[in-house]
Amino acid sequence: MTEPQATEKVLSRLIWPLRLTRAGMVAERVTRAFWPVWSVMFVTVAAFAFGIAGRMGQTTLWAGLGLVGLILALLIARAVMRFRMPSRAEAMDRLDRTLPGRPLSALLDHPAMGAGDPATQSVWAAHLRRMADRAATARAPEPDLRLSRQDPFALRYVAATALAMALLFGTMDRVGEMGEAVSFGTGPAIASGPSWEGWVEPPVYTGLPSLYLNEIFAEGFETPVGSRITFRSYGEEGSVSITTDVGPLPSDAADSYAQSVTVERSGDFTVNGPMGRSWSISVLPDQAPAVALDGEVEGEPPGQMQFSFTATDDYGVTSGTATIRLDASAADRRFGLGVEPEPREALVLDLPMPFRGSRSEFTEVVLEDLSQHPFANLPVTMTLTVTDAAGQIGTIAHDVPRLPGRRFFDPLANAVIEMRRDLLWSRENAPRAAQILRALTQSPEPGLDQGVYLQLRSAIRRLEAAPDMISTDTRDQVAEILWNAAMELEVGDLDDALERLRQAQERLSEAMRQGASDEEIAQLMDELRQAMDDYMQQLAENAQPGEDRPDDGGERMEMSMSDLEEMMRRIEELMQEGRMAEAQEMLNALQQMLENMEMVQGGEGGDGPRTPGEQAMEGLQDTLRDQQQLSDDAFRELQDRLNPGRPQQGQPQGQGQPGQETPEGQAENGQQPGTQQEPGTGQGGENGEGMTLAERQEALRRMLEQQQGGLPGSGTEAGDEALRRLDDAARAMEEAEGLLEQDDLAGALDAQSEALEALREGMTELGRALAQDQAGEDPGQGLADGNMAPDRPLQDPLGRQAGNSGAFGSDEAMADREEAFRRSRELLDELRRRSAEQERPELERDYLRRLLDQF
């Protein structure tokens, strides 16, 4: 077979792919040329399907149809002029471009030279055979029917949506109204005979669709009560009428073209006349809403009321209220409550409604602080009421033995609040309240705040000023004064840490005696822990260097912070188990210990007390080390994600023995070389187990903020610069925390690098500030002696020791410095090697390059 014959045979096999390709090109060009035509037609059909012809006059309809016809004619003419039938050559070129190497063009081509050369002919024949094999695999390409470039505003989708809405919700029979509307004169319309149509429109709040009576062929249907039936008749007056017993008809319904009736009950609806029909209508009643209280009304410390409720309705609840009234009969009518209470308006709270979703059934939580209301801590009756769109009401009443409010455990504050309660119960209690308040202030307790004393005396004067009965304004003013005084007594504004600790212990003891709830006891326990921390910090800050403590014969009690934490944890366990007597005994023992104890922090004290500067520098050193460890862990996790199944990084061959240093300058346990991780001090230690990277970063940021609060050297230029650098570090930590929560490890590593740099600079500036202060007091002592945290020397990322006063440098031997340089070179070589590996993800390589830029 000759080459031309083979080529013709191959092309004959491609006749169907060529035809399909050409058909696809025709579809593309027809779509692009004629899409405006069918878009206008879709919109026109949708308009008539929704009954636009019946709402327009004949003249207006004629004008509209003429305008639509003119637009269609112009669009069709434009489309015909733009349309061009694709040729066979164009189809072949389209098909050829879908194949590698353009084999169809090659089969129709001929060599430019070497026609008489056998070798050239042999190569050309082999080339044609390869092209023929490729051409045999040809498949017709899919046509490109996208019109985004021709229709950038997506008008075609608007037209298609209008047609779809007409098919779903409109009536295509109405399109025939166009012929009736454009008829000349009234003859044809009258000749067509009378007609009618009707709609059933349920109430809007039901959310149900309207029904078209002409399309209901069943004998009956259901509709909600309150639905409106609208009926229209066309033709000679009186030729079509309706009769129904579902609701009253208007008085002129007999001779009216438009009639409507509201469905109030089940019954029949009949159309009398041509094409008459009859339906049996069943009314769906609207059920009244219902509401139920989930659980009991509970207190949320310090003084909030909380309860949850569930509301249901067949179509949805629109609003709800909680009405709270005093239940005087259930109160303990002794002491100041023995008189009859004054009438007081009920407390009305709006129930929360869901913003999204259905309101047919939902559950919400009410949280209100009613501590200052006269009903607080008294028995009340709470009535929940919900209303639906039809105005129907659902209600439920619940007796609450005690309306949750703030409870006062300070004895004097509790007495003041009791007088406030009696006064709000009835103004008849004013003389008695004044007398008791006068007794409380006659011989005040030692240490009573002067402001509280003056407030109580002011309340007494107001109560005793009225000759008979105090006014409601005076009562409310006195109640406000008593509330503020009780709050100061309960919470207080004490500056003395020990007194605050004693007060927290007394409040906890009083709560245990009064049988407070678990939530209240938990809150008071947290307050006790906070007061304990403040007291310990005060003890540490006030400890004088070299202070000689009296020797009591070895009977002094030495306790660490962990011992105190364990003791408080045991007290909390006893209270949770209900063993209040044992918990009270242990609490009393704790109070006795605190008054005589000598705290030993972290097992230190062998070499004498440290200065505040040493403590601050050592704390920042711990924070720097922990931040470096956290950054290393984040980088390892990023590598694990980018390279699943990779060997552990940082353990090159020959360096995997325990305790041997890695190229990163870290030991196998993840610590910086030359440092010793103390238990519980680093986030990578025991306290970091079970914590996410973001939680560890948050803990480090909080630790840094606490260290900033007691930083020495403020007021000097170096001290202020140190604070600014540490603020920058805290902001970088906060940014890293947010990125870790978003699982953006690469961005978090950059922020952590900024935090490390800011920490180092802050420590350097702090060292300078401390050196200046120390030089002004006693040159040659303190930090200048180089004894700052000798057991844990500060290091930079390259393993160099920090010099005195936080300045980076070294007085170490040359051999040690050579070892540090060697580790630095290994680290740089490892970073360069990893950044040059092309198989690593681009994200990791970009991070490694940024690390190299810092060196």
TrEMBL record:
Q: Which intervals carry biased composition (Low complexity)? A: 644-680
Where does the record place the region Disordered?
A: 641-820
Q: Which domain of life is it from?
A: Bacteria
The signal sequence is: none
Which parts of the chain span the membrane according to its record?
A: 33-54, 60-80, 153-172
tRNA-binding in keyword set: no
The record's listing under InterPro entries reads: CHP02302_TM (IPR012683)
Look up the coiled coil feature and give its residue ranges: 484-600
Where is composition skewed (Basic and acidic residues) in this entry? 695-704, 721-734
UniProt keyword terms in alphabetical order:
Coiled coil, Membrane, Transmembrane, Transmembrane helix
The Acidic residues compositionally biased stretches are 735-744
Q: What is this protein called?
A: ATPase
